[in-house]
Design brief:
Blueprint: E1 3-8, E2 14-19, E3 29-33, H1 42-58, E4 68-71, E5 74-80, E6 93-98, E7 109-111, H2 114-129, E8 144-148, E9 162-165, E10 174-181, E11 194-198, H3 199-205, E12 220-223, E13 228-231, E14 239-240
Parallel strand pairs: 3-6, 8-10
Antiparallel strand pairs: 1-2, 2-3, 4-5, 5-6, 6-7, 8-11, 9-10, 9-12, 12-13, 13-14
């Protein structure tokens, strides 16, 4: 079984790397984290490295330098550790993340996964404070939401009330989310009244929906002017989210 190793540095940063991937024909993988091994956020690093282990076990392809991988909302890139920055050996691959995960066409990457962790924390905290249980399904920025034609990047931040529902299991392209108006005269079952929009187009204009997007299938939300009413899977009665609505992108 793969082991996860940690090494602290003088500037209070920490390196985490894998030990045991070579058995699978994979170069070991390392990532820098700007906090100590004891920090609770290290849980997200462990989760990421275990995900990579399971990914490699599940299929024959290996991760090579300059390759990218969707993970949560963002995209990760793997690069050579030419100067042995991790201390795990020069043959190790380092993890980088998108510098601007809410931009439409950003192709710049930075070392580490600090932004990725912060975004996952936002989504985990939304579930915890609303006592939502079930499978967490983090969507990627490139996935689509199905929307009614009245919901566009130009209206999503002002259309109220706004209905947000995850009725379907996501797939590679689809997030499983539906976003629509609450007008009873608008037929959301008619194909001509529906569109598909990338999530990052919607979130960039209305950050308030982002913390909820990892919630389980059958979660529903109603965005009103000053509050969000959340309906947990299987429940008919909603509750007001006690948290503050996110008004700017992290």
């Amino acid at each position: 079984m793969m082991q996860i190793c940690f090494r602290s540095t003088e500037n209070q940063a920490c390196w985490a790397w894998t030990h045991g991937l070579r058995i699978l024909g994979q170069r070991e993988i390392a990532v820098i984290i700007p906090w100590s091994e004891q920090d609770l956020r290290t849980m997200f690093i462990t989760r990421l490295l275990r995900f990579l282990e399971n990914y490699l076990i599940s299929q024959p392809k290996r991760i090579l330098p300059e390759q990218t991988l969707h993970y949560g909302w963002t995209t990760l890139r793997f690069v050579e550790d030419e100067h042995n920055l991790s201390g795990a050996g020069a043959d190790v691959l380092l993890i980088e993340e998108m510098q601007h995960p809410f931009f439409a066409d950003d192709s710049s990457y930075i070392p580490g996964v600090e932004r990725m962790v912060a975004l996952m924390q936002l989504q985990d905290e939304a579930m915890q404070r609303n006592s939502v249980t079930g499978d967490v399904i983090y969507p990627h920025r490139s996935q689509y939401a199905l929307v009614c034609t009245r919901v566009t990047p130009g209206t999503v931040h002002v259309l109220r009330p706004l209905m947000v529902h995850r009725p379907w299991q996501p797939n590679v392209q689809e997030s499983g989310w539906f976003i629509g108006c609450c007008n009873q005269d608008h037929d959301h079952d008619h194909p001509d009244e529906l569109n598909a929009i990338h999530l990052y187009h919607l979130v960039s204009q209305f950050p308030g929906i982002f913390p909820y997007l990892a919630m389980p299938v059958n979660t529903a939300l109603l965005f009103e002017k000053d509050q969000v009413i959340l309906f947990r899977p299987g429940e008919q009665n909603g509750q007001v989210d006690p948290g503050n609505l996110l008004t700017s992108l992290p």
